[in-house]
Amino acid sequence: MKDSFIHLFTTPGGYYLYDVNKNAILSLNKEQYEVIKNNLLGNQDNSEISNDAIDSVKNLCDHGFLSSKRPKQMYNPVNETLLYHLNNKVKMITLQVTRQCNLRCKYCVYSGSYDNRGHESTKMSFETAKKGIDFLIENSKDNERIFLAFYGGEPLIEFDLIKKCIEYYEEKGEGKEIHVTLTTNATLITEEIISYFEKHDVNILISLDGPSEVHNKNRVFCNEDKGTFEKVMDSVQMIKDKFPSYFHNRVLFNAVLDPDNDFSCVNDFFADFQELKQSNLIASQITEYYKKDDIKYSDSYVSKLRYEYFKLFLSKLGYLDKKYTSKLIWRYYGQIIDRYNRMELTKEIADKIHHGGPCIPGVQRLFMDVNGNFYPCERVSETSSQMQIGNVDTGFDVEKIKTLLNIGTISEKKCINCWALRFCSLCAAAADDNSNLSMEKKVSYCTSVRDSAENLLKDICTLREFGDELDLFENIDSADWKT
Q1: What is the layout of strands, in order, in the sheet containing 474-475?
Q2: How many Cβ atoms sit within 10 Å of the Cβ of residue 32?
Q3: Is omega for the bond preceding 153 within 30 degrees of 0, making it cis?
Q4: Which residues contact 177 (CB under 8 A, 6 or more apart)?
Q5: Fewer CB in 10 Å around end: N or C, the chain?
Q6: Which of 468, 457, 419 has its CA nearest to residue 26?
Q7: What is the bridge-based pairing of β-strands 366-368 and 251-257?
Q8: Given a cut of 50, is residue 475 above it in pLDDT?
Q9: Distance between CA atoms of 465 and 54, rounded to whole angstroms?
Q10: Can you give 17-66 as a three-state secondary structure string?
Q11: Is residue 48 pLDDT above 90, yes or no?
Q12: Average model confidence (pLDDT) for the chain?
């Protein structure tokens, strides 16, 4: 039991064990916890522990828990069906219609603070865009629903091209359920644009980081160091006043959370600002991948964020009205439930397994730059040769995709012994240093991954302690083990 592939943790209300082989959380009492902890530490002195506790832990071992089995190899099972996925199951293509932008956001991945390209005047031709749309249609035979997205730069600079693309997509996508999305800074929005988008059911994601003092800190016009908050809010007000149904059904806001800002200030803005109270909102952190300097998270920022999680949990348990919770973190509860629902009791871990993290490059969020080059998504560096996974004229580079899909192989010895491998969120971008895929760069993120995994487990257990019914829990006092 000393080498058990498990992780012990506690909450204010209990003692727990996560069994990696079983992919299950077990609730322990204090004595059971101490027996297992002592054995992991090589301490065989259980003289102060009751025989019942010792016997219950032995019973646990007899039923396959606390196994020391580790996987032998990092190997993504999708390898076996990769070609089929690439040829038939592509869900989405994002077209980079321009590299030009009328803003110079200070945290932008094209701002110079990241190992990536800068802003350029290059734009996509309609011929290239049509090829990208054709590629999506041809390689999505198994999908009833497909998605076309527009990205930049600021995509609305190329509104005429976008219109041509949408109409071509509607023609070519006949027979499928087609969806269109566009990410915008909202400074170029006009009534003409929204009228067209409403007619063609285009969903837009508007970047808005908070009140003027927060938003204007980072999001400024390119020709002058002037914030864009007032212009964005004018656009938002116009949409809400003149296209109320569209505003309610098709407009989503994205707030990029900068840890240098006061989280409470941002939260209060989205909770209290009349024009946005009923709006749909998501939040994202400033991306760490490819950033030249480390992002610093203050204790104050983290504590305020965790407090909002606490309030969210209270609302889910019926102790607090949802209106007092932060819209910025509503999605977190869904992520907990999603992770919880994907846990299932298994006999033992497979010899060949891959850690969580990598999507199937090119299938989930295929990104095509202005020149027709393919990338796994819009978040990777366009200057990275290993991230270029093909071209619209030549198709997918399958060998490169296999390498990205199996990124765990470069850190295999560490991964096969990591208790958090099922929870890992690291894809190949974590290893990309723009010249090669670096094991050292990838494992530099491992501590934060394990911390996040432990926090997730603790949050699941805390919710259970307060009555949220999560039926995957087992109590090791049970006489009837089901494996």
Answers
A1: 6-11, 14-19, 24-28, 474-475
A2: 23
A3: yes
A4: 144, 145, 146
A5: C
A6: 457
A7: unpaired
A8: no
A9: 24
A10: EEECCCCEEEEECHHHHHHHHHHHCCCCCCCCCCHHHHHHHHHHHHCCCC
A11: no
A12: 91
Spatial neighbors of 62 by CB under 8 A, at least 6 apart, are none
Query: How is residue 181 written in tokens?
Result: 């999305």
Structure letter (DSSP) for residue 351 = S
Q: Which of 64, 60, 8, 56 is nearest to 33 (CA)?
A: 8
Rounded to the nearest 10°, the torsion over CA 168, 94, 177, 166 is -30
Give pLDDT, residue 480. 33
- pLDDT score, position 405: 98
Which residues lie closer than 8 Å to 338 by C-beta, 6 or more apart? none
Token output for 26: 């077990």
Cα separation values, 309 from 267, 299, 331, 464, Å: 12, 15, 10, 15
What average pLDDT score do residues 30-36 get?
A: 94
> Which residue is it, tokens 């959370």?
257
- pLDDT confidence band for 340 (50 / 70 / 90): confident
Give the length of the chain.
483
Q: What is the pLDDT of residue 481?
A: 31
Secondary structure of residue 222 in the 3-state scheme: coil
List, for residues 270-281, the tens digit of each pLDDT value. Answer: 888 877 877 889
Residues 6+ apart with CB under 8 A from 20: 5, 6, 7, 349, 419, 421, 422
User: What are the backbone dihedrals phi and psi of residue 375, each rounded to the nearest 5 degrees, phi first?
Assistant: -140, 160
Q: What is the dihedral of CA 471, 474, 478, 483, to 10 degrees?
A: 100
- Tens of pLDDT, residue by residue over 267-314, are 999 888 877 877 889 998 888 888 888 888 888 888 999 899 999 999
What does the radius of gyration of the chain's CA atoms come to, in whole angstroms? 25
Q: List alpha helices for 116-226, DSSP H.
A: 126-138, 159-172, 191-199, 212-218
| CB neighbours of residue 353 within 10 Å | 19
Whole-number pLDDT of residue 478: 35
CA angle 312, 316, 322 (to 5 degrees): 60
Do residues 104 and 111 touch, judged by C-beta distance below 8 A? yes
Question: CB pairs under 8 A, 24+ apart, for 294-297?
Answer: 295/259, 296/259, 296/260, 297/259
Of 21, 46, 17, nearest to 31 (Cα)?
Answer: 46
**Secondary structure letter of residue 16 according to DSSP:** E
- CA atoms of 223 and 240, how far apart (whole Å): 29
